[in-house]
TrEMBL record:
The active site is at 173, 199, 295. The lineage of its organism: Bacteria, Pseudomonadati, Pseudomonadota, Betaproteobacteria, Burkholderiales. It is an enzyme of class 3 (hydrolase). Involved in chemotaxis. Part of a chemotaxis signal transduction system that modulates chemotaxis in response to various stimuli. Catalyzes the demethylation of specific methylglutamate residues introduced into the chemoreceptors (methyl-accepting chemotaxis proteins or MCP) by CheR. Also mediates the irreversible deamidation of specific glutamine residues to glutamic acid. SMART domains: REC. The keyword Hydrolase applies. It catalyses: [protein]-L-glutamate 5-O-methyl ester + H2O = L-glutamyl-[protein] + methanol + H(+); L-glutaminyl-[protein] + H2O = L-glutamyl-[protein] + NH4(+). This is Protein-glutamate methylesterase/protein-glutamine glutaminase. Residues 161-353 form the CheB-type methylesterase domain. HAMAP family: CheB_chemtxs. Residues 4-121 form the Response regulatory domain. PROSITE patterns: CHEB, RESPONSE_REGULATORY. Its EC number is 3.1.1.61, 3.5.1.44. Belongs to the CheB family.
């Protein structure tokens, strides 16, 4: 069975290019194209697509308005097609909150050499979306407000030495923007520093970090090069570089590296995890969240072998159970839990470490 795709975009040229790309794949076909959401609404009823690609900005009805109605009335996998602009990135972050599975930037039609890479990117995302667990829109969290019952009772780390010595290292891909948000909003302001690699292109990671910063008790920023890693702060890998953990004397620091993609990704989760294994060892706590592929599995195993304690998101709560599944299969994880429980699991582990340290 081929994956049935409906393309919604107000640009005839983009519709044509996307249709050619998708129909070139043996396992998918375009069952309809629409210049606006109103026509798309009728085509959805007629064609019953498996995946919808949706432009962010369109006439007659904004892409976000259509997405919000769609996810409320007929939830289905949606891949947003976004312009690489500040407004485009902000709107795309909101679309992911509303339930879109993933997004791609619009193809750079003038650069023919990049079209093969773009073809692989968008078709991979459509394949992942076709297997994704679709969830209805979620309301944005309010800073300082528990987003789940019992969050206020999560354990405190208590020991300041644990907060300053331990590090939480997080990797995610498809579905990861919302998973990372749910993980971070539960973290107390004095938690250990958190380093994050989320597969995301350049131009979007800054908006992602800014949105997280507005919702969380901790400070969240796009990582720079050579920054001292501090408790109560989270550092998001920029879309143009790998993020690594380094050392400068007694301090942990961030490092950015533009070496080639690893596992077809830059930033790569494996690169971050491997650096944490080298420089943090048993002081690292690894967390691997929803995502397509196997990026992070080998690096998480390296972390475990270096003494780190690792957690993976379970299948039931993943949008795509790819990366956690591979990490579990490789033997790199210690515990597996639902997304809503992972923050508490990590904090309880750290609290136990703190209590143990105080007894010594």
């Amino acid at each position: 069975m081929k994956i049935k795709v409906l393309i919604v975009d107000d640009s005839a040229l983009i519709r044509s290019v996307m249709k050619e790309i998708i129909n070139s794949q043996p396992d998918m076909e375009v069952v309809g194209v629409a210049p606006d959401p109103l026509i798309a609404r009728d085509l959805i009823k007629q064609t019953n697509p498996d995946v919808l690609t949706l432009d962010v900005e369109m006439p007659r009805m904004d892409g976000l308005d259509f997405l919000e109605r769609l996810m409320r009335l007929r939830p289905m996998p949606v891949v947003m097609v976004s312009s690489l602009t500040e407004r485009g990135s902000e709107v795309t972050m909101r679309a992911l909150e509303l339930g879109a599975v993933d997004f791609v930037t619009k193809p750079k039609l003038a650069i023919q050499s990049g079209m093969l890479e773009y073809t692989e990117l968008i078709t991979d995302k459509i394949r992942a979306a076709s297997k994704a667990k679709v969830k209805a829109a979620s309301l944005p969290a309010t800073p300082g407000t528990p987003s789940a019952p019992g969050e206020a009772n999560l354990p405190a780390v208590r020991n300041p030495l644990i907060s300053s010595e331990k590090l939480i290292i997080v990797g995610a891909s498809t579905g990861g923007t919302e998973a990372i948000k749910e993980f971070l909003v539960r973290m107390p302001s004095d938690c250990p520093a958190i380093l994050i690699t989320q597969h995301m292109p350049e131009g979007f990671t800054q908006s992602f970090a800014r949105r997280l910063d507005s919702l969380c008790k901790i400070s969240v920023k796009e990582a720079g090069h050579g920054e001292r890693v501090l408790p109560g702060h989270a550092y998001v890998a920029p879309g143009h570089s790998h993020l690594l953990l380094g050392r400068s004397g007694a301090n942990y620091v961030t490092q950015l590296d533009q070496r080639p993609p690893v596992n077809r990704h830059r930033p790569s989760v494996d690169v971050l995890f491997s650096s944490a294994a080298r420089h943090a060892g048993k002081n690292a706590v690894g967390v691997i969240l929803t995502g397509m592929g196997k990026d992070g599995a080998q690096g998480m195993l390296e972390m475990k072998n270096a003494g780190a304690y690792n957690f993976a998101q379970d299948e039931a709560s993943c949008v795509v159970f790819g990366m956690p599944k591979e990490a579990i299969a490789a033997g790199g994880t210690h515990e597996v839990g639902a997304l809503k429980d992972l923050s508490g699991m990590v904090l309880r582990f750290l609290a136990e470490q703190g209590t143990r340290a105080l007894r010594v």
